[in-house]
């Protein structure tokens, strides 16, 4: 894996054709999946954090610009999230198909897929921010993204559970998406951590391979 994180960082937004395309594509994609969600209260909960992430990316663009690769990673994750927020994660057809093909006991694994992708796709942008805009030693640029993913996942699970506690008992399970698994939150966090570890280990291996070729 060889990623150039510098070239696109110094191009103005209006001159960055790829980034303009990403923004237009995601805006249209998100708008399409904002209509007629299965359950609007859950859609709002899922999207509050999206609004925060997108807001931070916009406000920090001039000072803390990322590479096109990082923005592409974030966009891919946000698209998966938009689908889950609209259909409710336990109802997305892809999740049923994967469960059937691989004979998983969980009826729908779409939420598991998205938690894993959160770790995979967010770890690199965090790594890039630390490497480019901090003076941390290189090892911390690999460790802290994993720590951030674990912490963020835990905070999200706590907020989700606290919100669900305000609902009638019969709505708790559908809202959380437990699908009968009392360890659902722990497994979600574990998958996010595994995804982040996968990305950081892959980057470290790629770096060593490039060094040997030089």
Explain what the structure shows.
The protein has one domain. The protein is globular. It has helices spanning 17-34, 40-59, 68-87, 93-102, 110-133, 138-164, 169-176, 184-213. The chain contains 8 helices and no strands. α2 (40-59) packs antiparallel against α3. Residues 1-6 have low confidence and may be disordered. It is 73% helix and 0% strand. It is mostly helical and 214 residues long.
Secondary structure: elements and pairs:
Layout: H1 17-34, H2 40-59, H3 68-87, H4 93-102, H5 110-133, H6 138-164, H7 169-176, H8 184-213
Helix pairs in contact: 1-3, 2-3, 3-5, 5-6, 5-8, 6-8
Low-confidence stretches: 1-6
What is the average per-residue confidence, as pLDDT, rounded to a whole number?
89
Number of helices: 8
Total domain units:
1
> How much of the residues is beta strand, in percent?
under 5%
Largest sheet: none
Please report the total strand number as a whole number.
Answer: 0
Helix content: over 70%
Structural class by secondary-structure content: mainly alpha
Distance between the termini: 15 Å
Order of helices and strands: HHHHHHHH
What features would you highlight for this structure?
214 residues, mainly alpha, 8 helices, globular
Produce a short descriptive summary.
The protein has 214 residues and is mostly helical. It is 73% helix and 0% strand.
């Amino acid at each position: 894996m060889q990623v150039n994180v510098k070239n696109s960082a110094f191009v103005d937004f209006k001159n960055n054709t790829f980034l303009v395309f990403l923004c237009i594509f995601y805006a249209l994609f998100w708008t399409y999946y904002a209509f007629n969600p299965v359950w609007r209260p859950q859609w709002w909960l899922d999207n509050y954090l999206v609004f925060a992430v997108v807001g931070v990316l916009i406000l920090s663009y001039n000072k803390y610009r990322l590479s096109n690769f990082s923005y592409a990673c974030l966009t891919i994750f946000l698209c998966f999230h938009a689908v889950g927020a609209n259909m409710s994660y336990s109802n997305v057809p892809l999740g049923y198909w994967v469960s059937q093909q691989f004979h998983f006991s969980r009826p729908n694994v779409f939420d598991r897929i998205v938690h894993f992708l959160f770790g995979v796709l967010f770890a690199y942008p965090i790594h890039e921010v630390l490497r480019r805009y901090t003076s941390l030693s290189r090892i911390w640029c690999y460790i802290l993204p994993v720590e951030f993913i674990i912490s963020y996942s835990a905070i999200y699970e706590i907020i989700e559970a606290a919100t669900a506690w305000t609902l009638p008992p019969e709505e708790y399970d559908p809202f959380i998406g437990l699908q009968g698994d009392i360890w659902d939150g722990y497994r979600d966090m574990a998958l996010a951590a595994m995804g982040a570890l996968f990305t950081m280990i892959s980057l470290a291996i790629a770096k060593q391979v490039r060094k040997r070729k030089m």
